[in-house]
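hey so i finally got around to running the thing on that chain from the lab meeting. sorry it took forever, my laptop kept dying and i had to restart like 3 times. anyway pasting the input first so we r on the same page abt which one it is
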Amino acid sequence: MKGQLIYVMGPSGAGKDSLLAWLRNHLPAEASVHWARRTITRPVRSGDEQHHSVDAQAFQRLCDTQAFAFDWEANGLRYGVRHVELAPLDAGCRVIVNGSRAYLSQALIRFPELEVIHVTASVDTLRARLLARGRETPAAVEARIERALAFQAPAGAIEVYNDGSLEDAGLQFLRAFHRG
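ok and heres what got predicted. didnt touch it at all, straight out
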């Protein structure tokens, strides 16, 4: 692998997707970055990340044919990153994967040299953002908060705190990106 694999993860409500969008808009054109597109068992909705939408049966067929470099299940959905999405590594590109905390240990087994960026926020910020989304009951929000508190980022992971403005967190992210 000539390039650098960057694995970005964080709890729901940390603003990971917003930060990834911010980074896309603030990286210089010559940055040589490939944004790994995920395959998800969820329809594409306005405002969502751009992903390959498939049903559960199609996802399983892709698993059966070993199409994925990474695949996991979270929050009732299945996610995968196809091998072809990592191919730019061979050309020396940086590849950014929007990953899962629960899958990180398996990702590190497959790619021990990957750079881990953990996007997080305070408990109060996570709770406020999750409740504002209105997609889950307060009990489900608290369960997500408990999972976030239980997670320990591995040694060497870069922490990006997203409690303030998106630009402040984005600049942290950009500094971390340039260190790698």
